Each structure stands twice: as C-alpha cells, then as structure tokens.
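Box 3.1 A note on notation
Throughout this textbook, protein chains are presented in two layers. The first layer is the amino acid sequence; the second is a token string describing backbone geometry. Keep the layers aligned when reading.
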Amino acid sequence: MQRYSRLNNLVGWLVFAVATITYLLTLEPTASFWDCGEFIACSYKLLVPHPPGAPTFLLLGRLFSLFSFGDVTKVAVLVNALSALSSSFTVLFLFWTITMLAKKLVLHRPGMHDDRTLEPTTGQSLLILGSGVVGALALTFSDSFWFNAVEAEVYAMSSLCTAAVVWLMLKWENRADEYDSDKWLILIAYVMGLSIGVHLLNLLAIPALGLVYYFRRHATPTWMGGFVTLVISSIIVGLILVGIIPGLPSIAGWFEVLFVNSFGLPFNSGLIFFLLIFFGLLWFGFRYSRQRGSRLLNTALLSLVFILIGYSSYLIIPIRSSFLPTINENTPNDVLSFVSYLKREQYGDRPLLYGPQFNAQPISQTEGAPRYVRGKDKYEIAEHRLETNYNDADKVLLPRLYSPDPGHIQQYQKWGVNVRQVEDPATGQPSYAKPTMGENLGFLFRYQMGHMFWRYFLWNFVGRDSDVQQAGVLWPTEKSANLPERVADSMARNNFFAIPLLLGLVGLFFHVRRDGPNALMVGFLFLFTGIAIVIYLNQPPIEPRERDYTFAGATYAFAIWIGLGVLGLADLLKAALKADGARGGVAVALGLLAPVLMAAQGWDDHDRSDRYNSVDSAKNLLNSLQPNAILFTNGDNDTFPLWYAQEVEGVRTDVRVAVLSYLNTDWYIDQMKRPSYKSAPLPISMEHAVYQQGTNDYLPYVENPSVKDVDLKQFMQLVEQNSPLLQVATQSGRPLMSFPTRKFFLPIDTTAVKQLGLIPADRRSQLVGRMEWDMGRGAIEKKNLVILDMLATNNWQRPIYFSSTVNSQDFMNLQPYFQLEGLAYRILPLKDPNYDPRSGQEGYVEKQLMYDIMMKRFAFRNLDRADIFYDENNLRFPANYRDKFYRLAQAYVDAGDKVKAKEVMDYCFKVMPDKSIPYDYYVPQFVVPLSAVGETQKANEIMDTMTNRAQLALLYYTTAPEGSLFDLEIQLNLLTLQSVYRAAEQIGDRARATKALNLLQQYYPQQGG
C-alpha cells in the first residue's frame, strides 16, 4: 500500500507542477479587462468591490501582493498568480479524486467502502495513475478553465473549493467507519464557509456530497432514499443561500432597527442582542446534543459553526467600508446596508420559478419593505421599494421570456418566439401577445441550455469556432473553406476533433456500468454545476460577453469521466492485450492524446504573457487629461482598468473617475463629494437630501409653453429648493420634480475664463458668452443631474471630460462644446463652428495638443506583435486609437500640413499594423488623408483589403445556419463597406466605389433596410 500511495502522491504533484508551469508561463502580466482590475485594486488595498464581494479572495490576494515588496508593477501578476495556483491545486485535487474513483473500478471494488489497504499491481497502478493524469490534464488545458486560471477573477478559486470538498468527501468515505471520521465533514463545512467569500457556485456541490454520505451510511440504499437525500441536500443549499448568507444579517438588522428606533437604545445594541441570542441558542444546541448523545445533531451544529467561521471573512466588508476607502461600492458600513450589499439589491432580480413574461402589463405598484439608512440618532426610512404587480394571467411557471427590454424582445424572435403585437382590450394600447408555454420552454432548451451551456461545454471538449461573440462549436466535419479571415485566422479557432468528448463519454458509460453510486455522485455534480445554474441564472437573450466561466464546475465534473475513459479504453482492449501493463500503457497513451491535443491547440490563444493592452489603454486615457481632471466613464472595461492604474500603480491620482451608472446612486455621489488622493471633492452643490435614493431619481420633461429656455444655474437652485415651480403630480400622489423645456443655457464669465488660460490661441474667437443646448431627452436621470450641477458649480476651475467610449446619449447634446484630447472629450465654453452632428465625429481637434498626447504620452506595448493573441475585447481599444489618429491626421490635412499628417498615419500603422491588430471599420477613413499625402498605394491596399474581407464575411454570416446571431458582425462589415464607398468616392476611385456600393446593395436588403 505504501508503494502505491507514494506513487499517487508523487504523480499528483508532478501533474500539479505541469499545470503550475503552464499557467505561470501564460499568465497575464497585468490587469486584464472586466472585473480583474477592480479585484486586483481591491485586493491590494483591501477595498470594497461590487456586491456581493469576495472577501476570501481579497484577503488571499492581499497576502500575495505583499510579495511585490513595494514594486507596484508586480502586484497584478502576483494576484493573477493566485488564480494560477488555485487552478493548479484544483488540478491536483481532481487527480486524487480520479485515482480514488479509478482504484475502485480497477480493483473491482465499486461502491462506498474503505479500500485504503488494497495494493494495486504495477499494471493496475499504471492504469489508475494514468487515468488521473489524463483527466487532470484535460481540465488543465480546457478552454474555460485555462481562461480563468491566468487572470485575477474568483472562478479559479471557486473551482478549487469545489475540487477540495469533493476530494475531502471521498477521503471521508474511505474513513467513515472510524470514530473520528466526522472531522472530515466539519472540514468540508469550513471550506464551504470560506468559499462563500469567493463565489456561491461551490454550494452546488452539496447534493452530490449528500449522495456520497447516503450511500456510505446505508448498506442497502434505495432509489427513494437517494431521492430524499437529494431533497434534504437541496434544502441545505437553500438554507445556506437564504437562511445564513443574507438571513442571519437580515435578522440582526431587524433587531437593530427595533432596539434603536423603538427602544431608543444606542446604535449596534440590537446587533449585540442578536449575537447574544444566537450564540446562546448554539450553546443550548450543543448541550442538548451531548445530553441526548446525538452524534448527528452535534456534527450538524459543528458544521454550522465552521461554516460561520469561514463565512466570517465577510466581516472585512463592513469593517473596511467604515473607513470610507476610495473604492467602497454601496458603502455597506452598517448591518442594514450590509444586508443590501449581500442581496445584490442594486442589480434587481429575475423571476425564477413563477412570474410574468415580457408581455405582462403592470396593474399596480405597492410599497414594499422600507430601506433604512443610519441617521443622527436612529435609522431613517430612505425609501420604500416599489413592487410591481401583474395579473395572474400574465404569469407562468418557469418564466424564461421575462424581459420587456425592446432589444431583448427582438432577440427572442431568433429563438423561435413569435413576437406579435396586439391591442390590449383593457386599455386599447398596443401590447405583445402572450408567449405560449412551448415558446417559453423552447427558449429554455434552445438558448439558455443549448446556446449558453452546451455550446460552452462543447467548446471545451470538441472545439471552438473563433473568439467572435456567439461563436459556435467547431465540429471535426466542419469545412474550413470560404471562412472570413476573422474566423479562419483566429488563434481561438481550436479543433479537438471531439476526442476529449468521446473519451469522456466512454468514461461516463463505463462508470455507470461498473459503479453506479459514484457515477450518480459525479452525475449530480455535473447536473447542479451546469443545468441547475442555467435554470437559476435565467439569462436574457443577449449578453455583453460570453459567460462560459460560470460553468467551470461542470467542466471539472466531466474531466473526471475523461480520466475514467482511460479505464474504459483498457476494458475495450482486453481482447487484444491480456497483460495489465501493456493494456494500461496503451490505454494511457491513447488517453493522453486528448490533453496533448488540447494543449497544442489552446496554447496560443490562452498565452497572455506579453499582453499589456488593458492597462495601457487605462493609462493612455488618464494621460489624455489635464491636471486635476474629472472623467465620466462607463462601467466595467471603461472603468476597472482605470481603478487598477490609480489604486495600484498610482497613475494620475489627481484625476477623479466618475462612473456614470453609479452616479444614479446616493452612496456613490457621497463618495464623489469626498477627497481622494490628489483629487479634491467634485464640485457638487446638491445636499444629500436632494439626491438620496428615491428622490430625484429622474426628472421627466413636462413642457411649459411659457418657458422657452432655462438658465442651468437657476434650474439647479430650483431643484435643490424642491421648488413647486418644477413639481408635477404623479399617480402615487407624491410630487415629482420635472424640467419645463429641453433648451438650457449657461452664462459664461468670459473675462474669468480668459484669465484661467483655458483657451488655445487659435480658438479665442470661439469663446461664447452663453452655452446653449437642447437636452433632447424625455427625462433627466440622477447622473445627468449631477453632471449639470457640476457644470453650473465648477466655473471652469477643473477640467471636465467624457471618455470617448461613453454612450452619446449621456452627452446631453453638449457635443458642440467638446474638444477632443486623446481618448476623451473635454467640455469647454468654446463652440466648434464646423460641428456637424451627422458626421459622428465629436470634438474639436486641437492639433498640437492631440499630437503631444497621441505621439508622445501614449504607450502601445506589443500591439505590433502578430504572435500575441488579441481577442474581441482587446481589439476594441485599438480601434478607438485608430479613430483618434485619423482625426488628428485629417486635421493636419485640412490645415495643409501634409508632413505632419503623414507622420501621424505612419506612426499609427507602425504601432498597430494589420498583421497584429486587423484593420477595423475605422481604417477606411484613412484613405482620404493617405491619398492627400501621396500614399495612394497604401490607400488602395486598405480599400481592397477591407472590401474583400467584408465581402467574404457577409457571405459567410448571411448564409450560415445561425447567421442571425451575428448581427453585430454583419453591421460592422456593412459599415466598413459604407466607409470604403465614401472614401473611394471622395478620392474619385469609381471602380472601388462601385464594387463597395454593389456589395452594400446586395446585402442591405437582407438586413431589412
């Protein structure tokens, strides 16, 4: 036994080493897009990220960041390495899990029992360990798991928690007859408690672990017993998800409000009373279990305690929040706001088992539970959450077609929903016909399960078409002819020839046939971390990015069967090879084809080792701005890399980043009114009562014909005074502030502005004494109100910018007063006389300033390297760069400076050549300035390249079976042809213009216009 045990440990650690080396070699050296920048920043300084937080991850990330020893440029790679090591340990625990299951099969000892004393032969050991190697390496090189392993996200650590509890449960199963075996169950409870501070996905392993417990404790298990076990296990999951995570803090909050508001006691007295009661009940429970000699009750209580000990990592959230750090989302610094944070209330909710569909018309709104905020000496009601009520006839079981968003309703049609407009008999207004239950379930199976789960699953074990959003599965029989370059040349186009899938299916059938109880355990692990998540998430018909990372648990579970597939191959080889050693060697060699192929195909698109685009884009945006600037951004990719750059590397901490979506909340506006590093508070004049949640969330446009235009400063004063002049009645009886005209103006003290030195010499004539604009909106949201307040209050003391990636609807038609500076638009009291809203080109180009920013301040590290994979997300910012280079080059051409124009364009195509960053739909714009400076050959090459690519792409997407899913790709290629056509027309190239026009006419009708 000692020999096999040593081999099992040795080979396991060797597999761990392979995984670790792989992930460290392909690790992203800095903060990648999406949530990674936020997590790295919050780990480094223990800040408060978006709900529901990940305190366990943050604490470990902080520990890893300490090894930077003050070199802030190493912090990101160290926190990324936390994910890499989490993934490596997941692979290690998976290896040991597979070998435990394989040993039962090889030694013909299926089921639940202690087999530690059984010593396999050399041939059997080879087969057992080989199956572990194959399965573990298959997970190592699987697409979704590898993606999570090389960036600072929570899914790698969540997978580790899942792998650890499964391995621990099998360790318990081997020791269940020992007097102290329950310590393994308590350790599992502690790991699950810790996992709550990472991600809740780990809790979905509980039903599978419950089956192991049932089969091990019952010598003659029954189907009914198994079903009851699953029900009880599911209840346990629900109790943790609802009863413990938000439930205990919610009860504590109830006591707190009661004791402070009703009994007049000090703050936190109710919380202390709740803790005394709770710990008293625990003490009574332990005392009772000892008196009754109930081992089950005692173990259950100990498990609860250890879950709570692990869950206690969440105390870092209110503790750190109370110090008002620079990132403090939702400000959960007391028990009531902490409950809201845990429940993710800012994101709203989706119907799960019963609710309305998209056609449902609200019949009323009722006030729900109050939201309390801490006042001076008691908790005050900030607002009552409104609950929308619908007719029971509009509700269905398992509502999948729930979203009334017009974009979502349009997308539903692609998945078999017959969206029909009808007249509502009650109101006479147009409405949508009620979807049938068949359409509802069809969307569940075709989109939510088929497209958003099984497609991702097959990406990992069959092949992936490309990195284009909505990319399908690359089947072995798929033809590769006539593919657009964006698909054919994508490093993410990986073909595994379905070998991992087939091997896993062999393992699945072999496992079911030889060891039903353990196969059932793995099966329910796959089911609950796959299909159950699909049901729970209830995803809308379009997502901003691919969500395959959500199903890492199902990938892990199937990798177990890939490993056991080696045993299935060995069983098939029995007739040809009698010797255990030879048969095991051949089976292992055949099985290794799967992970080897996965590694060979996946290395180039998972290697991020030289990719700096995300952080460079953040630094470039910050370096576009003047000192002490205010920058309005979108969320996610537009903000989180900026947070990383400022919080970790200390880049441009004089700039205050203001996230527009967060400016709709009172807690974020409060934060913006406090200083941050070198940034003074934002110039917001409104008091908290004016913008607190539930107050001035939006102001509707209610026309007053007697008011032609309104002075912005006077308007803001009326809003702050809650003036009756702006109030309108609502159905609820509560008055609402409004605005009487869309036309606003802001008087400018031109003398003061001139003294500030804001005006470039060549724009002095453009200074206006009064800024005028038409809001062009039906309502002003709170974020717009904040911007207007700052414009009225700032008096041009601080530069105010919009990121150029912000939705133009948030510009409030201020574009005539924009000046383009790098990647941002600055608002100035200077009106561009040549501004044309139809051109789509915002902001006056101040050439020398733009030249200094784009050519001297910006970094474009490795964007010229064709060997680095830049996926769809990484290609968006380079497109933005090219657009700004074009604007600068064209400005020089218009000014007659062709030398500078050529220099700018040469530099643009040098740092971002087509070979590494393929031409995007902005590039045809360069044709006119290139022709103007004599670069006709380059201009022709761009037009020919873009036309040919668009032609091939449009043919592919409009004839593909699922071509309707690629609306964005089709639209981008049509925009490219439009741009080529306009450019060719401008330079008088009739042949190329005609070709582009013919293609446009060919494909535009297919788009309905």
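Residues 3-320+496-602 form one domain. The chain has four domains: 3-320+496-602, 354-397+401-435, 462-495, 629-841.
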